[in-house]
Design a protein that fits this description.
Strand order of the largest sheet: 5-4-1-6-7-8
Oligomer: single chain
Number of helices: 10
Shape: globular
Number of strands: 8
Strand content: 5-15%
Largest sheet: 6 strands, parallel
Order of helices and strands: EEHHHHEHEHEHEHEHEH
Amino acid sequence: MTLSLPDRITHVLLDLDGTLTDSAPGIIGSLRSGFASAGFDVPSDEVLRTFVGPPLGASLARIGLSDADAAATIAAYRRDFEVRGMFDNSVFPGIPEALAELREAGVTLLVATAKPERYARQIVEHFGLDGHLAGGLDGVHGATDYAAGEAQGKEVVVERAVAHAVALGADVGQVVMVGDREHDVHAAAHNDVPTVGVTWGYASPGELEAAGAVAVATTPDELRKLLTS
C-alpha cells in the first residue's frame, strides 16, 4: 500500500524526541552514566545518538547486550534520567508557534512517542506543550515502561494514538504522523498512516525518505504549511 498526504489533514500525531524537543543532551548524558554505572564500556556519542527516539530495549539489543545486561543498564539509566537527564532538554525553535498555528487552523494535535508515557507527560508539561494538545496531557501517548528483552514497538503507541484520534472524530484517512526517525515512519505505516518527516531531529541523511516518508519538512514553519495547505 502506497501512502500519500491526505487532501485535508484533521489530526496530527507528533513524535516527541527530535521532533518537538532536542532531548539528545540529557538522554546521551544519562546513557553514559547508565553504561558506566552498570559496569559496561560506554559507546561513542555517535552510537549513543542513534539511541534517541527508538525504544531503548531495541537499541540495547542492537548493540548486543544480553537481557540481563540490558536490564542493569536500563535501571542505571533511569536513575540518572529521572534526576538529571529528563529536563536537560529544550523545545526546538519555532515549534510552539507552529503548534499554535496548527491549532488555529483547526488541526487536532496528539503526541505519540516511544518514550515511556510517564516521562513523556512530565516533559510535555514542563515545557508547556500540553496546552496545544487535545485533552492536554491526556493527548500524550507513550510506551509502557520498557524492560530488558522488551521493546514495545512504536506501532502499539501509534495504534493507541490513532484510536484516540478516531474517538475525537477523525477519519483515519485524514490522520498524519510527524517524526524524525525511520521507526516513526514504519510505525505509522503499520497503522495505514502517512508520515511527514522533519530534518531537525536525529535521522541520518536520507533515512526518512528511504523509510517512506511522504514529505519532509526542514523547518517548523515548512511543517505547518505542509499540514495546512
